[in-house]
From TrEMBL:
Domain spans labelled DUF4351: 225-285
Protein known as: Rpn family recombination-promoting nuclease/putative transposase
Name of one Pfam family that matches: DUF2887
InterPro entries noted in UniProt: DUF2887 (IPR022573), DUF4351 (IPR025587), RpnA (IPR010106)
Highest taxon above the source species: Bacteria
Organism from which the protein derives: Petrachloros mirabilis ULC683
Source taxonomy: Bacteria, Bacillati, Cyanobacteriota, Cyanophyceae, Synechococcales
Length: 289
């Protein structure tokens, strides 16, 4: 499972997520920005760096997400952090590091050479399986835990998170979170298609990325008011979706779709998610008649 990219997206969407894991977050945590950096000579790749606002000589936070055992992880983390801090000393007054593990079993075995740093207040080790019941965690933290719950448990917990998102979060953030939940499940169940994953999560068609992408294309073509233009946009959107689902339409079917009312087009936009062939479309149109 490609967890690095998932956590990168999580931190991009919610940079304050890191500070929900710390006992004493900075007062201005909401102003921090997330970045990924490379340190050359020697070249190091740091998973994530959380930077204070420009002009604020504050604390820089280094973050490492580690789901595979690495017996030299701390050697690398401290080397990267110290070198970056050294080269940017004028920008920061202090540093802290956070390593996120699924469990203690993944942590490297030989901790003795780093005992002083690991026992200090600048180093934070987070074990996702020790954060508590996933349904009791803050929403963004629960998304992190979703990446490592048991596969049999994952669909139910994901559905619960989708429902929480609908209740607790407003647009457009709610769709971004639902998209992340879908991505996590798609990575965990790679044998399933995107449509099957969305069905597993009980996601409505309007919440899918496909619908959002094409809807945005339609919006870009013009935002003029009026029912006729609204009808035209909906017709164009549905025809594009149908083309992606069942292929190009014969002219006879296309003409039937173009003759639908706005309400029928909206209903077709919902129904076509289950279409697999032109016969499904023909059957739906026959029912409307």
């Amino acid at each position: 499972m490609r967890r690095d990219s998932i956590f990168y997206k999580l931190f991009q969407q919610s940079p304050t997520l890191l500070f929900e894991l710390l006992p004493e977050p900075p007062i201005n945590s909401s102003a921090y920005r997330f970045d990924a950096v490379a340190v050359k000579e020697p070249r190091f790749e740091i998973d994530g760096v959380f930077l204070p606002p420009e002009g604020d000589v504050g604390t820089v936070y280094f973050c490492e997400v580690q789901f595979q055992k690495d017996q030299r992880l701390y050697e690398r983390v401290f080397a990267e952090s110290f070198l970056y801090f050294y080269r940017n000393r004028a920008r920061f007054r202090d540093w802290q590091a956070v390593v996120i593990y699924p469990s203690r079993r993944v942590e490297q075995d030989d901790l003795y050479p780093h005992r002083t740093l690991l026992s200090g207040d600048q180093m934070h080790r987070v074990y996702l399986d020790e954060l508590g019941e996933i349904r009791q965690l803050p929403l963004w933290v629960a998304l992190m835990v979703l990446t490592m719950v048991e596969e049999a448990q994952a669909p139910a917990e994901a559905r619960h998170l989708v429902n929480r998102t609908r209740q607790e979060v407003s647009e457009p953030t709610d769709r971004a979170i639902i998209e992340l939940i879908t991505t996590i499940l798609a990575y965990r169940f790679e044998r399933l298609s995107r449509v099957e994953v969305e069905a597993m999560l009980n996601i409505t068609f309007q919440e899918t990325r496909l619908y959002q992408d094409i809807q945005e294309e339609a919006r870009e073509e013009g935002r003029e008011e009026g029912r006729e233009e609204g009808l035209q946009r909906e017709r164009s959107l549905v025809l594009r979706l149908l083309a992606r689902r069942v292929g190009e339409l014969p002219q006879a079917l296309r003409s039937q779709v173009e003759a639908l009312s706005l309400e029928q087009l909206e209903a077709l936009g919902e129904a076509l998610l289950d279409f697999t062939s032109l016969d499904d479309l023909q059957g739906w149109l026959t029912q409307q008649n």
